[in-house]
Amino acid sequence: MEYFSVISGLILLVFAGDKLVDGSVIIAERLHVSKLIIGITVVSFGTSAPELVIGIDSALSGVTEIALGNIVGSNIANVLLVLGIPALFYPFACDDDEIKHSLFYMIIATLLFITLAFFGPLYIWQGIVLITLLMIFLFYAIKRAKSNIKILKHDIDFAKRALEDMEPQPEKKTPVAKAVIAVILGLVGLVFGAHILVDGATIVARTMGISEAVIGLTIVAIGTSLPELTTSLVAARNNHGDVAMGNIIGSNLFNILAIMGITSLVAPISIPEHFFRMDFPIMAATSLILVPIAMGKIKINRLTGIVFSALYIFYLFFLTMQSNFI
Which CATH architecture has domain 2-323? Predict the structure, then answer.
């Protein structure tokens, strides 16, 4: 039964998150909010809602290791899996200077997060620091975008597809009331989906003798990375390598600053020692490996996809082996 809870929770999270984004975009457009603001705020928070709700629910349920594992595991999966799998089918190039700028922010955020973790549990003040940095990043991102510089933001392709789907048929605009209902149902679905997922994952972990952290690093992390994987596949297929890279960098940045920051405000996030032995170093390494890619030193081709995918499989293998000693 607990396995059904995990699977159904993941499905509900993806479906509810999609409905929340669609409804939010429609409402924002009816209120004449610019597409720029929609992309940076509504879509960014909407597509990150599964991770956020899981983090809050885990914190309130006293299993903060799932919340921590979800963020760290998702960031690792976003690079090795979300970048690796599309490269297997659709090799692409990435030559956007703005990506280098946002990658710098992401690396700083990653290293800062690991540094804060060294000081023990993440409390409210660490959460405030992370959220403040997020606000600074969004402020300058909007400022750069308004100066006609292409902005790198979380899951931009979701916003583009949502808006493009609506624009060709302006005569069939979705009623605001229906959009509001979609947002409400999306929020309810996220909360319920996250709750049954966390409960099911916790039971699975305890039944199999695996720590909640490992469940968060594997099942939950991969499940919540599915929207990013879909986005990158679509972007790579359409030869939009910059969008694929932007999706990964924006997602990792948002996971650390927004999701971890907000979750830390709800409850202290304990940091198990084994995270420092393997997971944090791997998260830092996967972040830094994006530098030569963004600089054009490493090509995103099938060989890259094979290497990245293989590295992720090895990571999961060693993670499973390590769980026997946690």
Answer: Up-down Bundle (1.20)
